[in-house]
Amino acid sequence: MPTELDWAGFWRGFDRLHHLRDASWTSEDKLRGKAHQQLGSLGGGNHFVELCLDGDDRVWLMLHSGSRGIGNILANLHIEKAKVLPHNQELPDRDLAVFLAGTPQMDAYRADLHWAQEYARLNRRVMIEL
Length: 130
What we know:
The protein is mainly alpha-helical. The protein has one domain (7-129). Helix content is 46%, strand content 9%. It has helices at 7-15, 28-38, 70-83, 104-129; strands spanning 48-53, 59-64. It has a two-stranded antiparallel sheet. Strand 1 and strand 2 form a beta hairpin. Helix 3 runs antiparallel to helix 4. The longest helix is centred in the last third of the chain and has 26 residues, at 104-129. The protein is elongated and about 55 Å long. The model is unreliable at 18-26 (pLDDT under 50).
């Protein structure tokens, strides 16, 4: 596994996130700072690091973590946008709102989802290399 992280490429991906500029309750700089500050940290909830011993007496490191809240922020931004789309207005529960395949909204959601997955992957990599 290479040890050099592509920070420039990572932050270019952060800059391409679609809806951070639209969020009146937060700022892109605040999220960028949060993402940078939390990278390499475990978080809480069900996240953990565990040393395991297998049947052949080999030691394994098991690590479970996520996108450290940024994925949740992005998901909630997209959910709120989906709730107001015309095709979701008659749903019995607005939490079932969706984007339609092939739409710009779905493309933006998928791009942000992939970025959050990359952040989570990079977060685990940084922790393992520490």
